[in-house]
Amino acid sequence: PGELGPTDPGTAVLVDGANRLDSALATLEQVDRSSAILEIAAQSCAQSDADVSRYLACLSDALDDFANKLDQISTDLPPGLENVAQIVRDARRDIDRARTRAERRLASATTASEREAIRRDAIGEARGAIATASTRIRKAITLVRADDPELARVQTATINRVSAAVDSVGIELSRAVGL
């Protein structure tokens, strides 16, 4: 008597809120692990940045892996991030296009300065694709509307972590052209 039972509506709300927060924290952990893998992959791709085709192919593969991991948890992601894997794939597609254009142009390049200009152009295009993806991801923060401030904080942190991982690819691209 006097104890809150499982049918008490107040208890149901507390349990639901705790479950949502626990779920959001677990999702943040998964996103953090996947993001760290993308960041390490982007750094390792930089070892082949002199060969722009290989470099961009490596980044493309890393982004594809990241998108696949995000797809696996898409139903657990915060509001606005349901399509984040597609945003990452769009960036990957644009990087692939930049790589293909560079390969075509490199086939007829005759001087080292031409090849370097083509490399810079391709990396510049890839940086633009990454910047666009990051902007689109950050817009999801405006969609976080949790009643629980702690849940909202965790959801915002999840979005920021995905965006930071994508930004890390842009940073690596900037380093490749000496910016």
What does it look like?
Helix content is 77%, strand content 0%. By secondary structure, it is an all-alpha fold. Helix 2 packs antiparallel against helix 3. It is elongated, with a radius of gyration of 21 Å. The N and C termini lie far apart (69 Å).
Q: Write down the Rg.
A: 21 Å
Oligomer class = single chain
| Largest sheet geometry | none
Strand content: under 5%
Tally of DSSP β-strands? 0
Distance between the termini: 69 Å
Please, how many helices?
5
Share of helix among residues?
A: over 70%
Provide the succession of SSEs: HHHHH
Low-pLDDT residue intervals, each spanning 5 or more residues = 1-5, 7-15
Helix and strand content put the structural class at: mainly alpha
Overall geometric form: elongated
Q: For the residues shown, what is the average pLDDT?
A: 88
